[in-house]
Amino acid sequence: MSQNQNGSKAYLFSIVLVAVLGGLLFGYDTAVISGADKGLQAFFLGAKDFNYTDGIHGFTCASALIGCIIGSALSGYMASNWGRKKSLIFAGVMFFISALGSMVPEFLFFEHGVPTYSLLIAFNIYRVIGGVGVGLASAICPMYIAEVAPSNIRGTLVSWNQFAIIFGQLVVYMVNFLILGDHTNPVIESIGQGVYAVSADSDPWTIATGWRYMFGSEAVPAGLFAILICFVPETPRYLVMAGNESKALVVLNKINGEHAGSRILDEIKSTITEKTERLFTYGVLVIFVGIMLSVFQQAVGINAVLYYAPRIFGDMGMQNPMVQTVIMGVVNILFTLVAVFTVEKWGRKPLLITGSIGMGIGAFGVALTFGNASLSFVTMISIMIYSASFMMSWGPICWVLIAEIFPNTIRGAAVAIAVAFQWIFNWIVSASFVPMFNMKLAGDPNFGHWFTYGLYGVICVIAAVFVWKLVPETKGKTLEDMTKLWKKD
Predict the structure, then answer these.
(1) Who contacts 287 (Cβ-Cβ below 8 Å, separation ≥6)?
(2) Cβ(411)–Cβ(143) below 8 Å
(3) pLDDT category, 273, cuts 50, 70, 90?
């Protein structure tokens, strides 16, 4: 009887746990390149039919992000027409195909172990396929969680999605570390004008095999996600929009209890007068705020650290950069938990503003000390502060706000646009980081280092002002309240 009156938390948490596996795959797929980076570069440097330049390698490392842009752009159409659940099943299949294809891009068409331009294209296609899965999961997983969660714990549960993203990154850092084992990453030497060569004493196993295992390891969580998502229900809000009110009521009763379930169903029905409304029905500001939350989450530069962590720590002179990368992953996990357990107490805005200030301090610290051997410890601590501040603020809270800030009738399309901008700026930051970081000016070898992190620090300050002035506090509000919130404006 108590379950009928109060709902089943076990049922709610079990379906949220499956949904956050999509977040784990998001983190896993985007960070796997951090360990495979140099082995992959060394493999294609052995090609005879083209020169594998620094620019081509930068594109290859970021190629999954092209798929992310495509997947996030499609997410609104798919979430609205296929439903949240079927879209996530499709994302899981994309993850699985990408993992196996990236591990063995020669499959069926090419000679194994022979790097060619055609093989590089095939590899990038598989990475783009995985990116489509990431783009879909990044938009639809938090949307799914927000639409099944009671309003009083919605922020916490959506924050668990970010925890899963960072946990996925930590898992892949550790998996990459274990796969590498006693082997070493190849030594890449510059021979001028953005062209590189592999040092003769590099470990051949890492070049031929190591990076393959790193990409292939994703097939395990991807397969698990694709299977488990088949067993979760569709969200009540989508079911109501699709005309299945009886099914929606069953899910709402299981989660919230019978009395609350009926009340929530009535609220959903009162705000969903038609399946969708025009994107700007609630004004330009709500769309602008959603887009800029996404832009700032990436423009602060965090993914330049997450994707290239071993390379950055190596350039700082650290003996085993993979160890520092794993340590950074642990710190990220701990500070993501800060957001998970405080988002419903402190609210969204205070966390975002505090995190922006902390990131700015960390970024300016890196800018002022990078390249000075006597201050390398300060540089490392600054990177940790920068990363940890992001994890307690912009990392999880941006996803919470994007999942909840839009009114029901425009959520699918609005989330798709916001997340597409997120991946566009993710690609811009990721593709621009290495060229900016390596810039030399007037004989100053560290110009690119301080310029890059100084720029990120300035953007962090602007982000804090943006949140303070324009972002509304949504703590404690139901998804149906968002209609009233923006109607007033």
Answers:
(1) 279, 280, 414, 417, 418
(2) yes
(3) low
**Cα separation, 215 vs 222, whole angstroms:** 12
Name residues whose C-beta falls within 8 Å of residue 242's C-beta, 6 or more positions apart in sequence: 83, 275
The C-alpha atoms of residue 28 and residue 222 are separated, in whole angstroms, by 10
Nearest to 64 by CA among 130, 118, 122: 130
Residue 108 region by backbone torsions, left for phi larger than 0, else alpha for psi between -120 and 50, else beta: left
Confidence bin at 1 (pLDDT 50/70/90):
very low
Q: Which two tokens stand for residue 368?
A: 């002022």
Q: To the nearest 10°, the Cα dihedral for 312, 318, 320, 326?
A: -60
Q: Which residues pair with 196 in a beta bridge?
A: 190
**pLDDT beyond 90 at 200:** no
- Long-range contacts of the stretch 121-127 (C-beta < 8 A, 24+): 123/60, 124/59, 124/60, 124/63, 125/101, 126/97, 126/98, 126/101, 126/102, 127/60, 127/63, 127/64, 127/67, 127/98, 127/102
Whether residue 299 contacts residue 267, with contact meaning beta carbons closer than 8 Å, is answered with: no
Residue with tokens 């690609």: 427
Q: Which residues, in sequence order, are bridge partners of residue 192?
A: 195
What's the rounded Cα separation, in Å, for the pair 24 and 326? 16
Q: What CA–CA distance (Å, rounded) separates 376 from 255?
A: 51
Average pLDDT for 309-324:
67
Consecutive H or E run containing 247 = helix 245-256
Kindly state the tokens that stand for 325: 């990368």
What letters, b where the CB count within 10 A reaches 16 and e where it falls short, cover 445-481? Answer: eebbbbbbbebbbebbeebbebbeeebbebbebbbbb
d(CA 283, CA 181): 55
Helices (H) and strands (E) counted in the chain, each on its own, are 21, 2
Confidence of residue 3 (pLDDT cuts 50, 70, 90): very low
Helix (H) or strand (E) holding 468: helix 447-470
DSSP-derived 3-state class of residue 441 = strand
Q: What is the mean pLDDT of residues 407-412?
A: 74
Task: Specify the DSSP element, H or E, that contains 195.
Answer: strand 195-198
Mean pLDDT across the stretch 408-429?
Answer: 82
Average pLDDT in the chain: 83
> Which helix (H) or strand (E) is 160 found in, with range?
helix 154-180
Query: What is the distance between the alpha carbons of residues 122 and 107, in angstroms, rounded to a whole number?
Result: 10
